[in-house]
């Protein structure tokens, strides 16, 4: 989908800043705010760090992006994939792991367990791989 359409569909005004951040995220897939700033500056876009943060934040609030925190470094990454999905972590690399069967299995397994004090919203499994 076109970046402008995605932004508009989320109920946000399409601005050059939002389009640039969305396009950077499309290429980076999982990225810290610093990664986004670095890419924009490399492409000759001198957007400020605070503007990039503001745009990323508005994208998260409107469901354009999701967030994932790296289980080993604790760093927060923005994720272009906002659907329910799991991740494989290999060193610094973050890889989407989309397996509906696994997600459904976990959901079914946990359904009705007494030690789950509420309804399950999303299942996001983090699988950490050994570094080769
Ligand atoms: Zn992801």
Q: What pattern of helices and strands is seen along the backbone? A: HHEHHEEEEHE
CA-based shape: globular
Helix content: 40-55%
- Output the CATH class name of the largest domain: Mainly Alpha
* Whole-number count of domains: 2
End-to-end Cα distance, whole Å, is: 36 Å
Share in β-strands: 15-25%
Ligand species: zinc ion
Given helix and strand content, the structural type is alpha+beta
Strand count, sense and closure of the main sheet?
A: 3 strands, antiparallel
Question: Which stretches are low in confidence, meaning pLDDT under 50 for 5 or more residues running?
Answer: none
Q: Roughly what is the average pLDDT, rounded to an integer?
A: 94
Query: Quick one: CATH superfamily of the largest domain?
Result: Winged helix-like DNA-binding domain superfamily/Winged helix DNA-binding domain
CATH architecture descriptor of the largest domain: Orthogonal Bundle
The count of DSSP E runs of length 2 or more, i.e. the number of strands, is 6
Radius of gyration: 17 Å
Reported by name, the CATH topology of the largest domain is: Arc Repressor Mutant, subunit A
State the strand order across the main sheet: 1-3-2
Helix segment count? 5
Explain how this protein is built.
- With 132 residues, the chain is an alpha+beta fold.
- It folds into two domains: 3-79, Winged helix-like DNA-binding domain superfamily/Winged helix DNA-binding domain (Arc Repressor Mutant, subunit A), CATH 1.10.10.10; 86-128.
- 41% of the residues lie in helices and 17% in strands.
- It contains five helices and six strands; from the N terminus they run ααβααββββαβ.
- It has helices at residues 3-9, 16-28, 33-42, 49-61, 100-110; strands at residues 30-31, 66-69, 76-79, 86-90, 93-97, 126-128.
- A hairpin with a 6-residue loop joins strand 2 and strand 3 (76-79).
- The longest helix has 13 residues, at 16-28.
- It is globular.
- It starts with a helix and ends with a strand.
- The mean pLDDT is 94.
- Residues 30, 68, 79, 81, 85, 87, 96 line the site of zinc ion.
